[in-house]
Design a protein that fits this description.
366 residues, alpha/beta, D-Maltodextrin-Binding Protein, domain 2, 2 domains, 6-stranded mixed β-sheet, 14 helices, 42% helix, globular, NrtA/CpmA_ABC-bd_dom, transport, cell membrane, ABC_SsuA_sub-bd
């Protein structure tokens, strides 16, 4: 039997973390990707053909390069071709935990999200909240710092470092890395040997520019945007993993939606596999398409040099890399962020393996 999740931290500690994040956001001006309604054309081509078992499928994702499979699936019409007469209603989120909240609330059906929110959502629900049905990306996460303030890994101690949100994938990765160096940080408040600032990626660049941050452990394109502001890469998270491969983004689905509308889930996963195959064969066109979609979402184009640098740091893969997901769960449990690291039942790779066989590609295993 899966262990019961730990109780949430005391309200006062959570309020301190929230207040810190709000204070930082107030420092920001017009950060990349500030909240905007999704442009009508961001949903991709209109639905055509016979409907599947729902009129509309609601897909969530983040405006990150690590979610480029979703960006390109929409931008290049991969979802529309597989879903035929079923329309796509896209929704973007600032971080993975908010995407999990939306999945739990029933406001999205399928989402691209990082491993830590998926792990936490699965365990806290006793395994009822979600299933991982495909992989999407590996890598694309870096620790970037102000070179005038931090010149070595040891000098990160005592500084102000941003992660996207309490409990998100990069937040847990930074806490685990800091703990491996013997540093103490309160996971709830971010206080300790490092001042951990939970900052939405959409405001982190402005906060760094203002001098409020000394660095950030963030996904692409935020890492490369900070480098364009004068930061330098101090550590690539891929260097901490065997073979430099670790899951960054997975495709998750509500189990209820999966049970009732497996045809729709199969279609979305087929589209994801097709997008990944096309991206590998057309890397320059793929970068351009991802950049165009991000500009549509945010109203602001990424400079070509930033887009190129961000793209080079990510490996796009259909494989959800289950051993690395389990390792991340163990990391969180050792930090006492989880009471258990038992992920039995988190995967349903049937849709992925059907899509891979259809495309003439080898299946993946848990």
């Amino acid at each position: 039997m899966r262990s019961a999740p730990l109780p949430l931290p005391p309200l006062t500690r959570l309020l301190a973390a929230v207040a810190l994040a709000i204070a930082l956001s107030l420092l920001a001006g017009c950060g990349y990707g500030k909240n905007r309604p999704i442009a009508a054309d961001a949903a991709g081509p209109p639905a055509r053909g016979p409907k599947l078992s729902v009129d509309t499928v609601r897909i969530g994702y983040l405006p990150n390069i690590t979610h480029a499979t979703a960006l390109i699936g929409l931008e290049r019409g991969f979802f529309a071709r597989e879903l035929k007469g079923t329309a796509v209603a896209p929704r973007t989120f600032g971080s993975g935990p908010t995407a999990i909240e939306a999945l739990n609330a029933g406001s999205v059906d399928i989402a691209w999200t990082g491993p830590s929110p998926a792990i936490n959502g699965f365990l806290r629900s006793g395994g009822d909240a979600l299933r991982i049905v495909a992989g999407s990306a590996s890598g694309g996460v870096r620790l970037v710092v102000n070179p005038d303030r931090i010149r070595s890994l040891n000098e990160v101690k005592g500084k102000r470092i941003a992660t996207p949100q309490v409990g998100n994938t990069q937040d847990v990765a930074f806490l685990h890395w800091a703990a491996s160096r013997g540093w103490k940080i309160d996971p709830a408040t971010g206080r300790g040997d490092v001042s951990l600032v939970r900052s939405d990626n959409r405001v982190t660049v402005d906060a760094y520019r203002s001098g409020s941050l000394d660095g950030a452990w963030v996904p692409e394109p935020t890492a490369s945007m900070l480098v364009a502001e004068g930061a330098r890469v101090l550590l690539d998270e891929a260097d901490l993993w065997p073979g430099r491969r670790f899951t960054t983004t997975n495709v998750i689905v509500s189990p209820t939606f999966l049970a009732k509308h497996r045809d729709v889930v199969d279609a979305v996963v087929r589209a994801s596999v097709a997008a990944t195959t096309w991206m590998a064969a057309h890397p320059r066109e793929a970068r351009t398409a991802a950049g165009a979609h991000l500009e549509r979402l945010t109203g602001k184009a990424l400079p070509a040099a930033v887009l190129d640098a961000a793209w080079q740091g990510v490996t796009f893969t259909n494989d959800p890399l289950p051993p690395t997901l389990r390792a991340q769960a163990r990391h969180a449990a050792r930090l006492h962020l989880l009471a258990s690291d038992d992920l039995t039942g988190i995967y349903d790779l049937g849709p992925l393996n059907r899509a891979l066989r259809s495309a003439g590609l080898p299946p993946v295993e848990e």
